[in-house]
Amino acid sequence: QVQLVESGGGLVQPGGSLRLSCAASGSIFSINAMGWTRQAPGKQRELVALITSGGSVAYGDSVKGRFTISRDNAKNTVDLQMNSLKPEDTAVYYCNAGTPDGTSWGQGTQVTVSS
After folding, report:
1. E strands along 40-86, which residues?
2. Cα 16 to Cα 114: distance, rounded to the nearest angstrom
3. What pLDDT sits at residue 56?
4. Residue 54 neighbours by CB distance under 10 Å
5. Secondary structure tally for the chain: helices H, strands E
6. For residue 89, how many other CB atoms are within 10 A of its CB?
7. Residues facing residue 99 across a β-bridge
8. Among 56, 77, 101, 109, which residue's Cβ finds the most Cβ atoms within 10 Å?
9. DSSP classification of residue 32
10. Distance in Å from the first CA to the final CA of the chain
11. Tens digits of residue pLDDT in 21-67
12. Cβ(88)–Cβ(74) under 8 Å?
């Protein structure tokens, strides 16, 4: 079992930046990929960013060039640096971890981009 805790969400003005962090615990050695998804009210859940155990990364089209995913294996954390934020980035952001037994979810952290 993998437990995930997100932090770093909050309110930011358009054009601003936030950094989200995800701390993993439990059966961390079984994790083969970690990433971030988001969901806004009335919208479909979408992939934000993904990083595999081999170091490959992928981003959703709407965040390419603005967001960067990174990992710190020593701390068992995955971060998401979000720059040039737009109102349409407003959503609950979830950390996810893929294991041979399935996908684990964090509780989510709210990101609101508004003036």
Report:
1. 46-52, 57-59, 67-72, 77-82
2. 10
3. 95
4. 7
5. 0, 11
6. 22
7. 102
8. 109
9. -
10. 40
11. 999 999 988 999 999 999 999 999 999 999 998 899 999 999 999 99
12. no
Residue indicated by tokens 């993904």: 50
Report which residue type is found at 98: G
Find out whether 98 and 31 touch, Cβ atoms under 8 Å: yes
12's CB contacts (< 8 A; 6+ apart) are 18, 85, 111, 112, 113
Contact between 100 and 1 under an 8 Å Cβ cutoff? The reply is no
| Beta-carbon count within 10 A of 70 CB | 13
Cα–Cα dist 66/61, whole Å? 10
Q: What percent of the chain has pLDDT over 70?
A: 100
C-beta separation of 9 from 20 below 8 A? yes
Q: Is the dihedral of CA 9, 11, 15, 16 positive or negative?
A: negative
Half-sphere exposure of 76 (CA within 13 A, CB side): 14
User: Is 99 within 8 Å of 27 (Cβ atoms)?
Assistant: yes
What DSSP element (H or E) covers 17?
A: none
